[in-house]
Structures are given as structure tokens and as C-alpha cells.
């Protein structure tokens, strides 16, 4: 279905659609094309006969560092496309009739937190670190807040977005953002076993998903995204933000060169 070098890998087997972030060289930073591919993989899963969707990372050390800031720093067109792609992916995850699971270890920031927050189950390594770092760039992550509020209260979601506070796996589990924690040292095997456990109970997960869709109608999520999308673009389009992002990228390049 996909090529091994694609930044998003999609594979189907035994009723499970596996969707893998495969851009480790860029910390799985989500480009507009990757966001579109993720959305398409989620939307087409029911039509292709899948019963579950599982999000994974091909990297052994991280889940997703967030949006591709190199891309959105290129100018307003790239920025608008990436922002729109994120919103459409969030809507697809909210509307998906199938249970969505995730395996995650290492860093998950910004849009990476959105992906985990909008799943039904997260099997995490004990080295998982969730963060909302946008405030450091003088931005407020309105879409991260929307996603977090699907699992935690509004006040706590705002606190995380405003403070930039990092959560370890145990704190994320206590909040309800993580379902299971397994040892990072044998993550692939242990996480795979937990996902297999849940996959064997896919009928129960399907009922849980249908209950969630009835109690949290996706139309309400779509309206919230539509209402906040202009604020997201305003956030990124302010001149000072662009300068801060460019300075950050320049610092990263100097650090790598050194």
C-alpha cells in the first residue's frame, strides 16, 4: 500500500490498519503532505475492511515532535496548507467509526499530543514525555487545547497549553491521556502484546467507540475547529512569531553544524 521510504506507512492485516510515522530524521515532524496522508488513512480504513486503526512511530526513540516548523516558516501558503491539514485530520479522527489506538514512546509535542489525545487508547513507554511548547514561541496552541479536552477538563488543558509543562508517562496516565505503561527497554514487544490484547477485544472497543461518538458528537468537534481555526492562523501569522521560529531554526542548524 505504501513504500518503505514514505513518511507515512500504511499496512492492513487481520482487521487492523497500522499507520506509522516514518520520518525519524525530522523527528516525525508533520508536514502538510503527511497530515493529508494520515487523514486519508483514517478515512479509508472502514471502507477497506479494517476494524481498528493503530498509530505507531517507526522511530525507536520518539513518537512525534509536532508540526514541521521548517515547512510553515516558508511563508503564508505553506503555513495555511499545514494548518488546514491539521484541522481536517482532527475532524477525521473525531468522525472515525473505528476504535483508534496508539503506541507511543519518547517525545510527543504539539501536534503529536493532538494525535495521542484523539485516540481511544494509548499504550505508552515509561519514557514518554508529552509537552505543548508553543508558548515558548509566543503562540497559544488552540488546536492542542481542543484535542486535550476530548480526554481531560478544559481548565487542565489550558494550564498545560499555557505553561508548556511536560508530562511523563505516569502523570499522563493519571490525567487519562495514557491507558497502559510498559517498559521502554522492550517497548516493541510489550506494546505489541498490549495492542494484541485489545485487538482480541475489538467488539468491546467498537461499542466503546460508538458510545463515545454518541456522547461526544463529532459535529460538535467540527464546529469548535471551525470556530478556532482563524485563531490558529492568527497565532502563526504574527510577524514576531515568524521571527522567533526562524531564530530557533537557525540555532538548530548551528548546533547541528557544530
From TrEMBL:
Q: Which SUPFAM superfamilies does the record match to this protein?
A: ClpP/crotonase (SSF52096)
The superkingdom of the source organism is: Bacteria
Family matches, as InterPro entries: ClpP/crotonase-like_dom_sf (IPR029045), Enoyl-CoA_hydra/iso (IPR001753)
Q: State what protein this is by name.
A: Enoyl-CoA hydratase/isomerase family protein
| Source species | Bordetella petrii
Amino acid at each position: 500500500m505504501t513504500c518503505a521510504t514514505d513518511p507515512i506507512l500504511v499496512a492492513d492485516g487481520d482487521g487492523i490498519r497500522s499507520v506509522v510515522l516514518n520520518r525519524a530524521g525530522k523527528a516525525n515532524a508533520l508536514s502538510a503532505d503527511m497530515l493529508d496522508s494520515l487523514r486519508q488513512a483514517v478515512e479509508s480504513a472502514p471502507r477497506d475492511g479494517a476494524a481498528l486503526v493503530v498509530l505507531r512511530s517507526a522511530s525507536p526513540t520518539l513518537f512525534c515532535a509536532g508540526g514541521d516548523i521548517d515547512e510553515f516558516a516558508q511563508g503564508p501558503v505553506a503555513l495555511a496548507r499545514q494548518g488546514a491539514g491539521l484541522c481536517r485530520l482532527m475532524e477525521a479522527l473525531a468522525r472515525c467509526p473505528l476504535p483508534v489506538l496508539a503506541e507511543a514512546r519518547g517525545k510527543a509535542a504539539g501536534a503529536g499530543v493532538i494525535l495521542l489525545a484523539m485516540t481511544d487508547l494509548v499504550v505508552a513507554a515509561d519514557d514518554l514525555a508529552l509537552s505543548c511548547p508553543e508558548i515558548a514561541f509566543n503562540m497559544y496552541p488552540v488546536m492542542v487545547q481542543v484535542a486535550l479536552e476530548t480526554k481531560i477538563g478544559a481548565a487542565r488543558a489550558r494550564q498545560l497549553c499555557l505553561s508548556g509543562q511536560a508530562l511523563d508517562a505516569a502523570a499522563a496516565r493519571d490525567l487519562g491521556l495514557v491507558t497502559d505503561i510498559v517498559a521502554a527497554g522492550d517497548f516493541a514487544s510489550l506494546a505489541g502484546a498490549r495492542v494484541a490484547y485489545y485487538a482480541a477485544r475489538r467488539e468491546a472497543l467498537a461499542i466503546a467507540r460508538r458510545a463515545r461518538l454518541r456522547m461526544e458528537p463529532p459535529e460538535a468537534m467540527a464546529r469548535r475547529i471551525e470556530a478556532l481555526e482563524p485563531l490558529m492562523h492568527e497565532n502563526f501569522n504574527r510577524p514576531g512569531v515568524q521571527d522567533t521560529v526562524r531564530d530557533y531554526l537557525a540555532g538548530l542548524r548551528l548546533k547541528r553544524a557544530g
